[in-house]
Design goal:
8 helices, 8 strands, binds zinc ion
């Protein structure tokens, strides 16, 4: 399986998707997927945080592929330089700042970046793909009719469709949604927040998505 560069995906051009096959040498900007001891995805961490976790012996085990080697100081006795090999996925012990992974009622914060990614940069009315600057957040039931700003009441819409719909429901505007909006689970949210997601990290996250997640299909379409 191939990885995906989400930072580039929102440029709206299929050709701009950077497909990241693993393994290979990684730059230090590549983020590491941190999981808890049970393997549940927790967050993305940078190499400094990864080094800290290794150093404090909080890494219980690793998955995925070796990302990079970090070189430490030279040991005075042995004369050897300490080398830390960091993997793309690290399972850690101890507390985390993200309790969301264990709560079934967890609702990730809603913002346009993750919303557009949830909907694969497709307008949920005309079905066309657009760059971020041409997309907007549409409230299916508009505020003026009691709609609220929650994942299940918002979809990605191009400006044209959003203008056409105006302050009406899809029924009133005689416009049809091409997919039902959903609240991402914690694992889905971690994926949507990713920057450059490596193949092994993506495979790992996909395995933690609900089987019925629309993201399975959307990611396949992204990659094809
Ligand atoms: Zn549209």
């Amino acid at each position: 399986m191939l990885g995906i560069d989400l930072d580039r995906a929102d440029l709206g051009n299929q050709d701009d998707l950077r497909i990241v096959a693993s393994p290979g040498t990684r730059s230090l900007s590549q983020l590491v997927l941190r999981t808890d001891i049970a393997g549940m995805p927790l967050e993305w961490i940078d190499y400094k945080e990864a080094a800290r976790l290794y150093h404090q012996e909080q890494v219980a085990y690793t998955c995925g592929s070796p990302l990079y080697k970090l070189y430490g100081g030279v040991n005075a006795e042995s004369g050897l330089r300490t080398v830390l090999e960091v993997n793309s996925i690290v399972a850690t012990v101890g507390h985390t700042g993200n309790p969301g992974n264990t709560r079934h009622d967890y609702v990730p914060p809603l913002n346009n970046q993750t919303l557009f990614r949830r909907d694969a940069f497709l307008c949920m009315y005309c079905g066309m793909r657009f760059p971020t600057r041409e997309l907007s957040r549409d409230h299916i039931r508009p505020f003026s009719q009691g709609g609220v700003d929650i994942w299940t009441n918002v979809v990605t819409a191009c400006r044209r469709c959003n203008n056409q719909k105006a302050s009406r429901t899809p029924e009133q505007a005689k416009m049809q949604l091409i997919a039902v909006p959903f609240t991402p689970t914690y694992a889905e949210y971690i994926f949507l927040k990713g920057r450059r997601v490596l193949a092994d990290q993506m495979e790992y996250l996909l395995a933690h998505f609900p089987r019925t997640s629309p993201l399975h299909d959307r990611i396949q379409r992204w990659l094809s």
